[in-house]
Write a structure and sequence with these properties.
It is built from 8 helices and 15 strands. It is of the alpha/beta class and about 290 residues long. The protein is flat, with a radius of gyration of 24 Å. It binds phosphoribosyl ATP and zinc ion. Zinc ion binds next to loops.
């Protein structure tokens, strides 16, 4: 019997922690959160969970301390460690961008050639400039990158952006996207053969949770004379379920719709005469 456990590294505290923990919990895995500890053992799945600083995760995986982990693609790219991206997770979305003070007359990336750029991502930034046959005078700082131009430390910055409000409040303008990023599940290359089935089992659950968060379960009542038109709006997994209502001339329709099309479809359904529309979240979706 395989008694080994798969070791997963999660960010201990930060922007990815809550979503990473919730992902595993929604996969039905029970464990104590890492608020006060470094390591936890799942009670009902062969998994050990390590809670670490995100920047350390690629190195720990390369060294074999952990087998898999959840990090931002930006962290993986900066670490330069070999790891395989197993699954994109859809949270922690952001972009690594170049930004300049509002007063900087920026026309193209060439305007930054030879300029001082503050960043916590020196490897990615140098690579980006080298690809364009330009050079940047990279100043590596570990935090509060956005204040570097105003204190005279740099001419521009390269930092993560999500809403853009940090740049705005610091009088900076985003001018180039260096990379886009989201949280990813990564694995050591050539994972031991006896750990692979555990990873596959975990991945099966993660995919079901991901599919569920991207879809909604919808129930509605429709007059029978509009049934066909309404069904055409609702693809469902195979096709929608239609059941007669106790009230003559009416049916109840159940289906699954993608979150992205959600509002548009609901409006069209209402226009076609649908009533009593209920929309429910889905916990897991196995197709
Ligand atoms: O302590 P530890 O080293 O583990 O954490 P950390 O402080 O290095 O990382 P943390 O928790 O801030 O971010 C973890 C990961 O979240 C990053 O590596 C990204 O993959 C992802 N992420 C998503 C972000 C953001 N969005 C984000 N907005 N990481 C940081 N930011 C910061 C950014 O640096 C800037 O200061 O938020 C500010 C900008 O946000 P907006 O909304 O004002 O644009
Ligand atoms: Zn970090």
């Amino acid at each position: 019997m395989n008694t080994r456990k798969l070791k997963i590294a999660l960010q201990k505290s930060g922007r990815l922690s809550e979503d990473s923990i919730n992902l595993l919990k929604t996969c039905g895995i029970k464990f104590d959160n890492g608020l006060s500890k470094l390591k936890s053992v799942a009670q009902n799945f062969p998994l050990e969970i390590f809670f670490l600083r995100d920047d350390d995760i690629p190195q720990y995986i390369a060294d074999g301390v952990a087998d898999i982990g959840i990090v931002g693609e930006n962290v993986l790219a900066e670490a330069g460690q070999e790891a395989e991206i197993i699954e994109r997770l859809g949270f922690g979305k952001c972009r690594l961008s170049l930004a300049v003070p509002k007063s900087f007359a920026y026309n193209s990336i060439k305007d930054l050639d030879g300029k001082r750029i503050a960043t916590s991502y020196p490897q990615i930034l140098s690579g980006f400039f080298a690809e364009k046959n330009l050079t940047a005078d990279v100043h590596t700082i570990s935090g509060s990158v956005e204040i570097a131009p105003s204190i005279g430390l740099a001419d521009a910055i390269c930092d993560l952006v999500s809403s853009g409000s940090t740049l705005f409040t610091n009088g900076l303008r985003e001018v180039e996207t260096v990379m886009i990023s989201e949280a990813v599940l990564i694995s050591r290359k050539n994972l031991d053969a006896d750990l692979k089935p555990i990873l596959d089992k975990l991945l099966f659950r993660i995919k079901a949770v991901k599919a569920a968060t991207q879809n909604k379960y919808i129930l509605l009542n429709a007059p029978d004379d509009k049934l066909q038109e309404i069904i055409e709006l609702l693809p469902g997994i195979k096709s929608p379920t239609v059941m007669p209502l106790a009230k003559k001339g009416w049916s109840s329709i159940h289906s699954v719709i993608n979150e992205n099309d959600f509002w548009e479809i609901v409006e069209q359904l209402r226009d076609k005469g649908a009533e009593g529309i209920l929309v429910l979240s889905i916990d897991q979706m196995i197709s």
